[in-house]
């Protein structure tokens, strides 16, 4: 049986890599530059974030001026996501593999891992504070204004122009493909929109459809206001007045009266009426007066995303093959397209064979200013 398993394993592994290439969208689009630093399960990768530096006037003198202090920060990526997708095959199934027939369960196992990775990266949206569009209204219903508004947000947030991606759900893609700006070659410079149903590159973005885009269920806060303390520009925590009802949840986007900036809740309040605190990002852009100031939540919405590659970081670490003589066979390979590392472990059980694909990875939102939500 060992010889048969050794012959079957590479065929199933190749099928798994094909499934990864077809299903994993986000790993293709985010920063993968920290993968060489990846370690074992439970380790972390610290991604450095530079601090701002203010230009200063040069005044020649006998001694140089003191250099302003800098305070770079970092965001950690924990390699704590270790998942497997196991399935069983009978001896008859294995014979079919050797004859060129790949069982559907093999492809489904890899699909589940790929979707899990994709969803995990997308789930980091909760720290994105940039916001445009209308909640519960699918973007691109009549024009491309949702795309230009997203571009405006990224420009204001000083996101680099390249590379930028726009990831939309099937409904938004269907609307976009009905627009002449995405169909007509005289508008788009490409016939792919009308011939292949592919948007490709438009309006400064590379476009991708992803069925796994999440929906954010917003809190229920109504009548929420700040207290009468007053808050200076740069504050990241406010105390609520004992007023209003409902909740403010992590990932909620809100505005504050008198300020056009959209903020995202980092730590929420499970009962607005008790006068709790809310921590948010980015730091306050407009000072809040020493009087009750209204807080308004954005409603529940689909989180379509426009972002620069460096907004998110992802790392996948190759897993070690099992030592010889432990009663199982392992094989691993790196998909040349997505770069995802996949290991297949095969072990013989009672009258059947167990196959398990597994992968170790981690991801995080590194720079929220490089991304914006486009509500749907």
> What is the terminal-to-terminal distance?
53 Å
Assembly annotation? single chain
Biggest β-sheet description:
7 strands, mixed
Strand content: 25-35%
Please provide the count of β strands: 19
| Arithmetic mean pLDDT | 86
Shape: globular
Unreliable segments of 5+ consecutive residues: none
Helix content percent band: 10-25%
Number of helices: 9
Give the SSE order as H and E letters.
HHEEEHHEHEHHHHEEEEEEEEEEEEEE
Taking all Cα atoms into account, the compactness measure Rg is 25 Å
Assign the structural class, choosing from mainly alpha, mainly beta, alpha/beta, alpha+beta, or little secondary structure: alpha+beta
Give a short synopsis of this structure.
With 376 residues, the protein is an alpha+beta fold. The protein contains nine helices and 19 strands.
Please characterize this protein's 3D structure.
There is one protein chain. The chain has 376 residues and is an alpha+beta fold. The protein has a domain at 2-45 and 76-112 and 315-375. It has 9 helices and 19 strands. The strands form 4 sheets. Strands 4, 5, 6, 7, 8, 14 and 19 form a 7-stranded mixed sheet that branches. Strands 3, 15, 16, 17 and 18 form a 5-stranded antiparallel sheet that branches. Strand 17 and strand 18 (353-365) form a beta hairpin. It is globular. The N and C termini lie far apart (53 Å). The mean pLDDT is 86.
